[in-house]
From TrEMBL:
It comes from Planobacterium oryzisoli. CDD domains: TlpA_like_family. Residues 37-187 form the Thioredoxin domain. PROSITE patterns: PROKAR_LIPOPROTEIN, THIOREDOXIN_2. The lineage of its organism: Bacteria, Pseudomonadati, Bacteroidota, Flavobacteriia, Flavobacteriales. This is Redoxin domain-containing protein.
């Protein structure tokens, strides 16, 4: 049953995010430095970003990290219009707050055959740090219910923020002001 539902969820994600969407979303942030080093080898590297494939379990570990660092984790895709429109706000906050205990992680939900597009996209949009490659075909409804209270995987962008026990979830695109307000409220 789960394997029958998963392609439906992925199809909903693909349909719900298009370049013509004006939907506002929530983004989450997670600190990837706290994840164990069981990730696969780096796929590509530039001066600003690296891409690394994670398993569903590794992403669960990433978003579950609880300490005094604020983790901002943004789930996106290179073809997602709202994702593209909100990324400059994340880049600006990441640069502005680089001296603070905040970790920005970007998780690509692009299809595995399109992973080669992710690093050039990251470079074009000035993303820095680690870009996680997650094979959405491996996501199950349990992944969403075990890790998030609001997000069921039906739309992106999605941002998850955690600092200790406090969390914030945003489904859809965030404005510059909304992102800054949410970071300040958790930091």
């Amino acid at each position: 049953m789960v394997k029958e539902i998963t392609p439906f969820i992925i199809a909903l994600v693909l349909v719900s995010c298009s370049k013509n969407t004006n939907e506002q979303s929530v983004t989450d942030s997670i600190d990837s430095t706290q994840v164990s080093s069981t990730s696969t080898d780096s796929v590509a590297t530039t001066s600003l970003a690296t891409t690394k494939e994670y398993t569903v379990e590794q992403v669960s570990e990433l978003v579950g990290t609880k300490n005094d660092t604020l983790y901002v984790t943004n789930f996106f895709a290179t073809w997602c219009g709202p994702c593209i429109r909100e990324l400059p706000h994340f880049v600006e906050q990441q640069e502005k707050r680089k001296a603070e205990k905040i970790k920005f992680t970007y998780i690509s939900l692009d299809q595995k055959q399109d992973w080669g597009k992710v690093l050039p996209f990251a470079t074009e949009h000035k993303l820095s740090g680690e870009i996680v490659l997650l094979d959405g075909m491996n996501l199950t409804p349990d992944f969403f219910t075990q890790n998030f209270s609001q997000w069921n995987g039906e739309s992106i962008p999605y941002t998850f923020m955690r600092k200790g026990e406090k969390t914030d979830e945003t489904i859809g695109m965030m404005s510059k002001e909304e992102l800054e307000r949410k970071i300040q409220s958790l930091n």
